[in-house]
Each structure stands twice: as structure tokens, then as C-alpha cells.
Amino acid sequence: MVRREAGGSGETRLETWVSYVLITGVVVSFALEVAGLILYYRTHHSFAISYGGAAFIRGRNFFSFFGRTLLEASRGITGLHLMVLGIAALILTPYIRAITSVIYFASRRNVKYCLITLFVLAVLTMSLMMH
Amino acid sequence: MDMLSLFLISIPVGFIGSLTGLGGASILIPLMVFFGIPVKEAIASAMVSVVATSSGSASAYVRERLANVRIAMYLEMFTCVGAIVGATITTWIAPLYLYFFFAAFLMTSFLKVGGGSGQKGRPGERSGTGRLSGWLELEGSYFDEATGKTVLYRADRPILGGMGMMVAGLAAGMLGIGAGAFKVTVQENVLRLPPKVASTTSNFIIGMTALAGTSVYLFSGLLNITLMAPMAVGTTLGAVAGGRVLNRLTGTVLHVLFFAVVILLIAQMLYKGIASW
């Protein structure tokens, strides 16, 4: 049944969670990318588009690539690291939104939507991990 | 072209994309191609800015209870699979075809202006029916500020709608765009959702679909960080500014702008396609 006072799909708590996940992801990503662009310019004194290997996302698994970038950044952060982390934050935003939805429907014991959201999460995970 | 000029170009692109409802990527890809960036690299990099602009606006639509998260999650099963297939096709086919596919798909943007009838969503009444929709709980409500009433709705023909969304996802993944106009048309005409629910739910789905497409491009050697970062920052800024002035412009101005931009983009991609024949 639709709850008139709630609006939307009636899943008020999920809508609030999802809304926060989305806006946080966009703000974090934006801040990292801007900081990355500034740091890149301060280091290279140029805004030239790079076609070197470091400018491309590399590897076969997004999560290990993300972990490797974090490790490299902890040893000495560069503008390119910050930009990569900004893009990664953006990529992870809908992914975290999918995880949030699975947790929510599991906690509500809504098997149908738990399976539907799990399907989307599984497809995304496979696509991000297997190349 | 350098990062600064790409950033500066992306701001008006995000602005116009937000005003016309085309989204930043549909405009940015032909522009990047015009400036000599390979079409496949432009498509792959633009997908990331689609995630940025979609997530930013979807956050507000969900909070305002306009987008229906349950319907969105059901439809995402189809769009994600479609986007992965579409992006895989792009990594394999000759760039030449992409110019023509892009131009052809831009024409579907006119569907939005032509307008689907959709379900008008008479206040207090569910006009959609169907056992599967009921079982999947593809229903909801929203408060219509124009009429001051709560509108109840239920999606029709969920299987057919899912197939339509798979085609939308395929085009989105293949061409690096949100394919919002096509998604809205499917939701209004096949699922028969009210226009406000269709457009906001479509916006919500676009981010997830773009992620599915991006996941294919991740390790294809097409995602250049120095292209993606200035583009994502610029289009986000432009889209935010566009959202703020949207209500101040008249419908006629928006329609003229929309037609001018779409025709220009179609012409640019067709020219590029014919020139590379």
C-alpha cells in the first residue's frame, strides 16, 4: 500500500539514505578533482592533457586499482592521484547506492527487492572486477 | 585542447545540457570529436560526467519523493545489462559507425519534445493495472504542487517496459550518454507513469546505467583521467547553474535552444561520419 503522507515509493528511510549517498559522493568527488587539477598544475605548470600510461585507468580489477592508487597516494600524493580518487569516488557512488539498497531490503525482509537489488549489485561487481 | 579549455567548455555544456534536458554528455561528445579527440575516448570519458550530473540532481528528486526508487531498481536490472552489452559493442566496432549511431540516437531526443501522452495520474486514482505490477509493488504517489493534490500511480506492462529500458541502456552504454529522453518516453508510454515521476525516475536510473557502461570502459585503455576530471568538474558546475535559471526561462526559449543544439549536434556527427567514410 502507498503511504499518502510519505510520497515516492513509500520507502522513506531508503530514499533518505540514498539521497545522502548520492550527494556525498558528488561533493567528495568534486572536491578531489578540483584539488587534483590545482595540484597537477602546481607540479607541471601546464594543463596539457596527458597521454602517458599514468593518465589511464589500468589493471584488470577496479577495486585492486583503487587500493593500489590509495597506497601510492599515501606514499606521496600527486595531482593525478587526487583526480583518480575523485573519479573513483564518482564511480563508487552508484555502487554504494546499490549496496545500501540491498542492506535496506534485507533488513526489511523484502525478499523480492533484496533479490532485484542483489542482481544489479552482482552484475556491477562482476563488471568492475572481471576483465 | 588542454584541461583548462576542456573545463571551460564543459561549464556551458553542462549548463545547456541541463536547460535542454539533453544532459552534458550528448553535447560534449560531438564537441570533443570536433576538437580532434578520438570518438571512442570521448564516449568512454563522457560516461563519468553522466554519473556526476545524474547523481547530483537525483539526490534532490529522491529527497523530494518524486523519483520512485522501487520502480527505478526494477528497471535498473534491464538498463545495466543493456549498458554493459552496448559498451562492449563500442569497444569492438569501427568508430565510423558510432558517428551515425550517435546522430540517429540524438533524433530520439525529439520524442521528448513531441511528448508522450503518459498516464495523467488523476488525483487519488490508480489508472495502471496488472498483476505483475502489483506483485512487484511498482506503485507510489507524489504531491503535485500545481494541483495541490496527491497523485497515486501504478506502472503498467512491466515486462515490455523492462525491454524498452534495456534498449535505452544499450544505447547509453554504446554512445556514452544518459539516453534520458528515450528512458522518459518508455516510462511515459509503455509503463504509463506520470511525466514528473518518469523524468525524475529516469534521472535516478541514468547514474547506475552510466556506471554499468563505465565498468566496461574502465580497463579498455579509453578512460583518460586528464580528460575525465576537468569534464566532470565543468559539467557539474554548469548543470548546477542551469538548474538554478531553468525556471526563469520561458518554454519557447527552451524549445528553440533545444532544437538548435540537437540539429547542430546531429549535423556535426553526420559530417564527421561522412568525412571518415
Structure report:
The complex is a heterodimer of chains A (131) and B (277). Chain A is built from four helices and no strands. Chain A is mostly helical. Chain A has one domain. In chain A, α1 runs antiparallel to α3. Chain A starts with 11 loop residues before the first helix and ends with a helix. With 277 residues, chain B is mainly alpha-helical. Chain B is built from twelve helices and two strands, in the order αααααααββααααα. In chain B, α4 runs parallel beside α10 and α8 crosses α10. About 2% of the residues of chain B have low confidence. Classes of the chains: A mainly alpha (131), B mainly alpha (277). Chains A and B meet through α1, α3 and α4 of A and α1, α3, α4, β1 and α10 of B.
Question: Strands, helices and their partners?
Answer:
The complex is a heterodimer of chains A (131) and B (277).
Chain A (H helix, E strand, L loop, with lengths): L11 H33 L17 H14 L3 H29 L3 H19 L2
Chain B lengths: L2 H18 L3 H11 L4 H25 L5 H24 L2 H13 L1 H6 L16 H5 L3 E6 L4 E6 L3 H18 L4 H10 L5 H23 L7 H21 L5 H25 L2
Antiparallel strand pairs in B: 1-2
Helix pairs in contact in B: 1-2, 1-11, 2-3, 2-12, 3-10, 3-11, 4-8, 4-10, 5-12, 8-9, 8-10, 9-10
Helix content of chain A: over 70%
The main pleated sheet of chain A reads as:
none
Output the helix-strand order of chain A: HHHH
Strand content of chain A: under 5%
Rounded to an integer, what's the Rg of chain B over CA atoms? 18 Å
Number of helices of chain A: 4
- Ends apart, CA distance between termini of chain A: 43 Å
Which structural class best describes the helix and strand composition of chain B? mainly alpha
How many domain modules of chain B? 1
Taking all residues together, what is the mean pLDDT of chain B? 84
Q: Which class of secondary structure composition applies to the elements of chain A?
A: mainly alpha
Number of domains of chain A: 1
Distance between the termini of chain B: 25 Å
> What is the CA-based Rg of chain A, rounded?
19 Å
Low-confidence stretches of chain A: 1-5
Question: Which blocks of ≥5 consecutive residues of chain B have pLDDT under 50?
Answer: 120-125
Fraction in helix of chain B? over 70%
* Main sheet strand line-up of chain B: 1-2
Strand runs of chain A, count: 0
Query: Based on DSSP secondary structure assignment, what is the total number of beta strands of chain B?
Result: 2
H/E element order of chain B: HHHHHHHEEHHHHH
